[in-house]
Structure formats: C-alpha cells, structure tokens
Amino acid sequence: MIELKRTTSENVDFNFLNKMLDKELVIRDGEEHAFFAQFNKIDTINHVIVAYEGEEPLGCGAFKKYDEETLEIKRMFVLPEGRGKKIASNMLAELEQWGKELGYKKCILETGTTFKEAVGLYKKANYAVIPNYGQYKDVANSICFSKSL
Q1: Domain boundaries defined on the chain
Q2: 120 CB contacts (<8 Å, ≥6 apart)?
Q3: What's the start-to-end Cα distance of the chain, in Å?
C-alpha cells in the first residue's frame, strides 16, 4: 500500500529522490539540462510529498508559491520500480489538496515536450496547456499547464 507523507525539502528521502530525478534529467534533458537545472533548486520548497511503499520512498512531488493565488508544481518523480502504480497521480492530487487548504486558487507547472508520461499525467488530471510563463516563455521544448483549484 502506498502512503503519502507531507514534509519539507529537508526530508532525507525527498533529497534522495531529488538526486535520482536529477540523474535522470541529465540524460533526458541533454544539452538543455544546465538551463532547466537552475530553476529546480529545492532550498525554497517548503511543501513536499514523499510516497512510500512500506519503508521505501518511491516518489516525490512539491510545490512552491508562484504568486498570492498560484502555486507551482515542482520535482514530480517516481522511481522506475514505482511506476505504473498511480503514485504520481495520487501525489499530484495530494499537492492540489494541500494547496487548496493553504488558500491557493490555481496550480501551474512546466514540463518538457519530450516527457510524454508527464504530459499525459497532467492532461489526465485536467490540466490545460497555457502559454509558457516566466523563465520558460521562449523555451521551445517546454510545455506549461494550469489548473484551477
């Protein structure tokens, strides 16, 4: 059974999963990795979800404040052995619920156009494609999404 735990970026298991995510992104992002990596610092993230199966951390997700009404989903990742168990969709729903509890009205996020699994996850969770925002505005390989809470 998968258990979701609310925590912060200081969580040891989140830091482990974050390192595994970065290793995968180095390969998947290719030459663009340095550009994207600068926007994935975790020191300002106070809202983190870690998914566990028993004692084993299998996935993580987080959000940070974008503006007074908007949160930005960050660091969504599931280890290969946890994929196919709906962990990502459950973490995303928990992040949205947490954001609602804190008074946020909207979620935004960015992913790469080549991350077909992520694009599918967000579309299935009723996120709508929006014009690229902020630092992703002119990035051809980025796709941005939004969802009202």
Answers
A1: 2-148
A2: none
A3: 27
What distance in Å separates the CA atoms of residue 118 and residue 13, rounded to the nearest whole number?
22
The residue whose two tokens read 């926007």 is 39
Closest CA to 120 of 77, 89, 94: 89
Q: Which residues pair with 53 in a beta bridge?
A: 2, 56
> Measured on CA atoms in the order 10, 16, 19, 25, is the torsion positive or negative?
negative
The CA distance from 136 to 149, in Å, is: 22
Phi-psi region of 30 (alpha: psi -120 to 50; beta: other; left: phi over 0): left
Q: Which CATH code of 3.40.50.10610, 3.40.190.10, 3.40.630.30, 2.120.10.30 fits the domain covering 2-148?
A: 3.40.630.30
Q: What is the mean pLDDT of residues 39-51?
A: 79
pLDDT of residue 140: 86
Q: What pLDDT digit, counting tens, does each position of 102-144 carry?
A: 999 999 999 988 889 999 999 999 999 999 999 889 888 899 9
Which residue in 119, 108, 29, 32 sits closest to 69, CA to CA? 108
From the centroid of its chain, how far is CA 57?
16
